[in-house]
Specification:
The complex is a heterodimer of chains A (about 375) and B (about 575). Helices cover about 25% and strands about 35% of the residues of chain A. Chain A has eight helices and 22 strands. In chain A, the strands form four sheets. In chain A, strands 7-8-9-3-10-11 form a six-stranded mixed sheet, sandwiched between helices. In chain A, strands 14-13-12-16-22-15 form a six-stranded mixed sheet, with no helix packed on it. In chain A, helix 5 links the parallel strand 8 and strand 9. Chain A starts with a strand and ends with a strand. Chain B has two domains: about 280 residues, MetI-like fold; about 220 residues, MetI-like fold, CATH 1.10.3720. In chain B, about 70% of the residues lie in helices and about 0% in strands. Classes of the chains: A alpha+beta (about 375), B mainly alpha (about 575). The interface between A and B is large, with 45 and 34 residues.
């Protein structure tokens, strides 16, 4: 990957006074890759993006873009944003209200000495990509949110940068438009082949749009991987809980691993061991038998059965209530050990409150974590 | 790792190249502004400890100036007069303004918005023109109102404009009332009426609610306005010069003007008194800031649609009172100045055929007037252009520029606020008397510098407020798209704040055309603007020609003020 890396961050750190908002973050983005920084607000993802753009200066580390050092505070190197040649779409779109659509998009081209027919041709071409040629002479304040988003995208792409920076670009759109724009951006990227550094707190956006994702928390990169790797094999409890939903079953580490598979002992209210749920994966590191652990499984991997149906590797639970959420039913279930979990069931599942059900947890889908 | 290898080859950048040109430019600007703002103050302070005059070498140090304060009876009288005049007119105008602003903001008096606009307009009438009009109305012998009251019998009185109360009257009817109404009305209107409604629900009457809830809540706002007004009171100059000096009534500013114009000016004594005034002014401003900061919650901003108090039977009497006030505040200055220009002999209504257009015919052949008109045009245009460019850039540096001394810069722009006009004039005079700056002494540049500095506190505040409104991302988008800092500033930032730029331009233009105290000590016959010429004509009792200048300046100021309003200017704020 590094062979053809468009952008590299080496131990990049950002401090404001005594507060460290980004701690020694390293990553490399390949050519044509869509790379996402995902995390809750305040995790440092936007600051990282702004350092790449040159809108913030890093306090330490290096940023290298297309083989050139953009920022290296130790050597006093800092390339200002207007000399970096990246494209960026801002959260607020930042469409200049005193210019028309055409003027907004022509601005970066004019800065690069493009004029006359070529200027017009290139603006038209890029507007054509998003189907907005007809609105070329419209004043910017008279655009809808989705149109502003497209103009912003055009303005960032018109000078054909190799790297496009997207700062929460969909967060101001309504739900339907958000999906549509996500698809449009994805198609454009595949068609034009630029690399993307995408910042979002929305896991669906991250999972659907990215080639790779870096999950950030408290200024640190917790895990880097493809969407599936991260979803299926989270490297930390933070990543596990941030991405998707999780069913957690707490207990103690089972004695004597059965066929080399460790498990969690589910105990009743009086402390009596009721059953053992085995886990095919684990993040335990030398944890001794009997110490507190928890088992995780994605709710969609849990197979719901009636209590009297036999099942491997299962635990019993009581349905406390059912919540209708439209396309499915959410079951609030209390397990034998008192843990409350949330499960999804199809609308036609036929479950009822007060019913005892069996939760079958396929061994390959379960994970053991230190408590 | 090809990319990395290449990157490795980058050498460390030498320190001098790490400094951006932008930072260099900001620093230079900071230094120049500091020179013209701080140095005059320092000069005045030093002057108070010098026995010799500014620019005279070798300097002899001593306490003669400070001793003069203790010994000079004239100065002490001037100090006492300043205090008395200030208290009298501030007391009257405060009571009046609180009442008028309350009526305009909180009651259903008809035409409240029009009255508010009228008071806003009154703020832009030049003091000197107002003074001239009131002379024509209330001069003891020929004043029209006096003649009417006497039934056109010869004699004097009953009113005399050349008196303590005459000065108070012109001040109150001039800008004192207008500025307070202008600031207080929006503040009163923005108060959340839920607080009052809560009082009424419990059974309190409207009147009781006003006195028990509304006024106590508004006291911080009223105090803040009053302190600003007190500060401006120290600045009062031209009204006292015209109405006070002939009867031997001096205040600080006229005493300083008088002393500087003596054959042997006592710069030491003037310096000492200037230091005292600046200290008082600084205290006032600090208290004002403290009140505003501590009580920012009291005037709940926002768009509350306040429920208006019904005046009932009082509705039309109150309307009548407001109408009368507007006639007195705006009608008298406009009508009497214009009338004066057509009088054969200013104030002599009873002579046969008192009217003539002669003055208008000859005025534009008068070389002094034509020169003054040209001077004013040059002065006002240069001041406006420089103010627009400089103040917007300074505001940008304070709000957005990544500049190491931006807090110091912010403070610097506030500083001229504590320096009354005549002292700014004095400070710059002593600065320009220094050998190094002698070449520009006596040129138009000195007047432009004085007016640009005087306008700085207000203009920078307004630009700052305007800049804060534009999102950072609009600017950042330009940088990322490849725009340099300068390109972004001129192509994105300035166009976005252009309405405020127009307002600053117009306000600076008006100020340059009419303000007197800031330029009084720097002007000479070659660079004398219309306003100074008018002052001189009035001192020489050439009222007919003075009326022409007054009329020109007044209609001109009002027109530009209305244009500024169209561009969104709503007036000064106490915070």
């Amino acid at each position: 990957m590094t062979q053809e890396a468009v952008l590299q961050l080496e131990a990049v750190t950002k401090r404001y006074g005594d507060t460290e908002v980004v701690t020694s973050s390293s990553l490399a983005i390949g050519k044509g890759e869509v790379f996402t920084l995902l995390g809750p607000s305040g995790c440092g993802k936007t600051t990282t993006l702004r350092m790449v753009a040159g809108l913030e200066a890093p306090s330490g580390g290096r940023i290298i873009y297309e083989g050139k050092v953009m920022a290296d505070p130790a050597r006093g190197v800092f390339v200002p944003p207007h000399k970096r040649g990246m494209g960026m779409v801002f959260q607020s779109y930042a469409i200049w209200p005193h210019m028309t659509v055409f003027e907004n998009i022509a601005y970066p081209l004019r800065l690069r000495g493009v004029a006359g027919d070529e200027l017009r041709g290139r603006v038209e071409k890029v507007l054509d990509l998003v189907g907005m040629t007809a609105l070329m002479d419209r004043p910017a304040p008279m655009l809808s949110g989705g149109q502003q988003q497209r103009v912003s995208l055009c303005r960032a792409l018109v000078y054909e940068p190799d790297l496009l920076l997207l700062d929460e670009p969909f967060s101001n759109l309504d739900a339907k438009l958000r999906v549509q724009m996500r698809i449009e951006v994805g198609l454009l990227q595949r068609r034009l082949g630029f690399s993307v550094l995408f910042v979002t707190h929305d896991q669906i956006e991250a999972l659907t749009l990215s080639d790779r994702i870096a999950v950030m928390s408290a200024g640190r990169i917790e895990q880097v991987g493809t969407p599936q790797e991260i979803y299926d094999h989270p490297a930390s409890p933070f990543v596990r809980d941030f991405l998707g939903q999780t069913v957690l079953i707490r207990g103690t580490l089972a004695e004597g691993a059965e066929a080399g598979i460790p498990g969690v002992v589910v105990a009743g209210g009086a402390g009596e061991a009721l059953c053992v749920v085995r886990a095919g994966n684990n993040a335990l590191n030398g944890t001794t038998t009997g110490s507190a652990v928890s088992l995780s499984i994605r709710p969609e991997d849990v197979v719901l059965k009636r209590a009297d149906q036999a099942a491997e590797n299962s635990v019993l639970g009581l349905v406390e209530s059912l919540v209708f959420v439209g396309d499915r039913i959410e079951l609030q279930v209390t397990l034998q050990n008192g843990d409350a979990v949330l499960l999804n069931a199809p609308r036609s599942g036929g479950w009822a409150a007060g019913q005892t059900i069996r939760l079958e947890c396929p061994v390959g889908r379960t994970f053991l974590w230190p408590a | 790792m090809a990319g990395l290898g290449e990157a490795e080859a980058v050498r460390a950048v030498p320190l001098w190249r790490r400094i951006e040109p932008r930072t260099l430019m900001f620093t230079l600007l900071f230094a120049v502004v500091a020179l013209f703002v701080i140095y005059p103050l320092v000069q005045v302070v030093m002057q108070s400890f010098m026995v010799t005059r500014p620019g005279v070498l070798p300097v002899v140090w001593g306490f003669s100036g400070w001793e003069a304060i203790a010994e000079n009876v004239g100065l002490q009288k001037a100090a006492w007069n300043t205090v008395k005049l200030t208290l009298a007119r501030q007391f009257i105008s405060l009571i009046g303004a609180v009442f008028i602003a309350w009526v305009l903001a909180r009651t259903d008096v008809p035409g409240a918005r029009y009255f508010e606009f009228a008071f806003w307009l009154a703020f832009f009438l030049p003091s000197l023109s107002i003074t001239l009009s009131w002379i024509l109305a209330l001069e003891p012998q020929f004043g029209l109102f006096n003649q009417l009251l006497r039934g056109f019998e010869p004699g004097t009185g009953p009113f005399n404009i050349y008196s303590f109360w005459g000065i108070v009257w012109v001040h109150v009817m001039g800008t004192n009332l207008a500025i307070k109404v202008m600031i207080l009305t929006p503040t009163f209107r923005n108060m959340n009426s839920a607080l009052e409604d809560a009082s009424r629900i419990t059974g309190a009457s409207n009147l009781r609610t006003t006195f028990k809830i509304f006024l106590p809540l508004m006291i911080p706002a009223i105090l803040a306005v009053e302190l600003l007004a007190l500060l401006r009171s120290l600045e009062a100059f031209e009204i006292e010069q015209i109405l006070g000096v002939p009867i031997g009534l001096f205040v600080f500013s006229t005493w300083i003007y008088d002393t500087i114009n003596l054959p042997e000016p006592r710069f030491d004594a003037v310096g000492a008194i200037a230091v005292l005034i600046v200290v008082v002014a600084t205290c006032l401003i600090l208290i004002q800031r403290l009140i505003v900061r501590k009580n920012s919650h009291a005037t709940l901003s926002g768009n509350f649609q306040s429920r208006l108090i019904r005046l009932g039977a009082w509705r039309w009497p109150v309307f009548g009172f407001l109408l009368l006030m507007v006639l007195v505040i705006i009608g008298v200055p406009l009508v009497f100045s214009l009338m004066g220009t057509f009088m054969k002999l200013f104030g002599f209504f009873t002579i046969a055929d008192p009217w003539t257009t002669k003055h208008w015919m000859t005025a534009f052949n008068d070389r002094a007037i034509v020169q003054a008109l040209k001077n004013t045009a040059v002065l006002a245009i240069s001041t406006a252009l420089i103010a627009v460019f400089l103040h917007s850039l300074i505001a940008y540096i304070i709000v957005r520029g990544k500049f190491f001394a931006k807090n110091a810069f912010d403070l610097l722009t506030w500083l001229p606020f504590t320096v009354p006009g005549i002292l700014l004039s004095l400070g710059l005079l002593t600065l320009f008397l220094q050998p190094a700056l002698r070449p520009i002494y006596g040129t138009m540049a000195t007047l432009v510098i004085a007016l640009v500095i005087a306008g700085m506190p207000f203009a920078v505040q307004l630009m700052k407020a305007s800049l804060i409104q534009i999102g950072n991302e609009l600017e950042e988008a330009s940088w990322v798209a490849g725009g340099s800092w300068w390109r972004t500033y001129t192509r994105v930032v300035l166009p976005l704040i252009s309405p405020s730029l127009v307002v600053i331009g117009l306000i600076s233009f008006i100020a340059a055309a009419r303000d007197i105290s800031q330029v009084a000590l720097l002007s000479n016959s070659k660079i004398r603007p219309l306003s100074m010429l008018q002052l001189e004509y009035m001192i020489e009792s050439k009222y007919e020609v003075a009326a022409i200048l007054a009329t020109i300046l007044m209609f001109f100021s009002v027109t530009l003020a209305v244009i500024a309003r169209v561009f969104g200017y709503r007036g000064v704020r106490s915070s």
